[in-house]
Amino acid sequence: MRQSSVIARRVAAASVGLVVAAGAAACGPEDNDAKGAGGDSTPHKGGTLTVLNAEAQTDFDPARLYTSGGGNVPSLVFRTLTTRNRENGAEGAKVVPDLATDTGRPNKDATVWTYTLKKGLKYEDGTPITSADIKYGIERSFAPELSGGAPYLRDWLSGAADYQGPYKDKKGLSAIETPDARTIVFHLNKPEGEFPFLATQTQFTPVPKAKDTGTKYEQHPVSSGPYKVVKNQNDGERVLLERNPHWSGDDERKAYPDKVDVRSGLDSSVINQRLAASQGADKAAVTTDTNLGPAELARVSGDKGLAARVGTGHFGYTNYIAFNPKVKPFDDPKVRQAISYAVDRSSVINAAGGSALAEPATTFLPDQKSFGYTPHDLFPAGKSGNAAKAKELLKEAGHPNGLTITLTHSNSKDFETSPEIATALQDALKKAGITVKLQGLEDNDYRDKIHSIKTEPGFFLAHWGADWPSGGPFLAPIFDGRQIVKDGANFNTGLLDDTSVNTEIDAINKLTDLNAAAARWGALDKKIAGKALVVPLFHPVYKRLYGSDVKNVVISDWTGVLDISQVAVK
């Protein structure tokens, strides 16, 4: 997931991506079984689920959404070839069939993937869903006026780099074949063993060409899922969903409520207050984008009733220090190593809200099996930093009296790249003789500065969330030299272009055995760590309240947040 807010993306996410969204196995609510609160924990059909969010569900068009696993609210309306497994914890990080009969059938070198649609699939109007509709849905995502989705299809599909969508080029994409109404074949320009993960993106949603209204499609996209859109006000500020009578059920979505009422644009403190009070319609309310902050969590933790209504989740996400080795003194590996030793992760975690909201990280990959997590700590700083080792390395680097450096961060109060984290690092590095000057920037200026090769500082705070639970979309954008962007948004902040790293990324991408691939991603993470181009700091933990009538709480390691496709309110 691109290095913007994981909540805004997935959510990502991210996705949503996001994205984003986080450490160990996710779990259901603390001090409460995963069925949820209430006297009768058995989930029943009926009622209205209210979703209280800060961010509006904008661009509600499958072409424009940047989501993985189908998203959360979008997944109620849009089905895709594959989707995420709707289970708690690590089991939820697996990809499973959705519209398709399986997760895809690759050729020998994973450059051709074939899918067969299940029988009897229908849209909300009762018309059949065909493979041509999925092809068309993907093609329209290439239209410039419908931009916003993930970039992988343009990069992966053979001959797709310059395609401008079906409104300008009616010939369509030759890389996608539909030999019959239930078969779709994708031709890739390089091996991609993780194509089943990509097929969870909303761009793989079927769109009937006859019903396509271009940029207005988001007002009433044609549903292939359990709910249809009956109201979309102010670009997703209020979205009302009702049952799709032609949805015949599927293996993943429970779809218990009769209606889902999404209300956005709310202040985060108001959301948490309403969920805590749990009165009226808010008894059957959840949030998909608002965490409990440190102060709120302390208050909730002191109330057993509220604590029983907190869902805890983890998402593949890492907060870290980034170095630009083209800027002195960070061109010297010993300086970067010294800073790695000097970091006090305990103080950083306290600045991020405490151990309930952040977990220490010494690996760039999140500590989840699906990413290939392999424990390592090449520059052990202990709990409070190793100032002595840092001073020793600085002396070897020609700085016996220490040095003065500038740390760039965002002024946004996000507890990730914000002043609190920067100040904690400033205090820790001072013990090692490193004077840190802080450069705080407004969020837009911060992102523009760190994502441009021309302006990237030498020492700054960053974060990254995965587009799906695997090491590939985590390591490649940050460390693959071929992904360095000289005249646009660049995410390879260390400007690493190592042939052995690039070659290993290609080799892993050929693997369709995802367990074998995960092990290789973990080994590559350790190899790259030796270059000291980043200092992993922590993985966030999501703590979110839900209403007292909410049942069947499922939180997977794919999203780290409550899955509203599983929730019941009766």
What does this structure look like?
The chain starts with 5 loop residues before the first helix and ends in a 25-residue tail after the last strand. It has helices at 6-9, 131-140, 152-156, 195-198, 268-277, 294-301, 304-307, 333-342, 345-351, 387-396, 419-430, 443-450, 472-479, 499-509, 514-529, and strands at residues 15-18, 48-52, 82-84, 95-97, 105-106, 112-116, 176-180, 183-187, 227-233, 238-243, 259-263, 285-286, 310-313, 317-323, 358-360, 403-410, 434-441, 459-465, 534-540, 542-545. α9 (345-351) runs antiparallel to α11 (419-430). It has 2 domains: 56-238, 3-Layer(aba) Sandwich (D-Maltodextrin-Binding Protein, domain 2); 317-542, Dipeptide-binding Protein, Domain 3 (Dipeptide-binding Protein, domain 3). Strands 9-10-11-2-12 form a 5-stranded mixed beta sheet, with no helix packed on it. A 4-stranded antiparallel beta sheet has the order 5-6-8-7, covered by helices on one side. Strands 15-19-14-18 form a 4-stranded antiparallel beta sheet. The relative contact order is 0.19. 22% of the residues lie in helices and 18% in strands. By secondary structure, it is α+β, with helices and mostly antiparallel strands.
- Helical region count? 15
Indicate the CATH topology of the largest domain. Answer: Dipeptide-binding Protein, domain 3
Evaluate the radius of gyration: 23 Å
CATH class of the largest domain: Alpha Beta
Structural class, please? alpha+beta
* Helix proportion: 10-25%
The number of E-state strands comes to: 20
Q: Within the largest sheet, what's the order of strands? A: 9-10-11-2-12
Unreliable stretches (pLDDT < 50, length at least 5) are 1-39
Overall average pLDDT:
92
Question: How far from one another are the termini?
Answer: 35 Å
What is the annotated CATH architecture of the largest domain?
Roll
Strand content: 15-25%
CATH homologous group name of the largest domain: Dipeptide-binding Protein, Domain 3
Organism: Streptomyces bauhiniae
GO biological process, one term: peptide transport
GO molecular function, one term: peptide transmembrane transporter activity
Domain Solute-binding protein family: 94-482
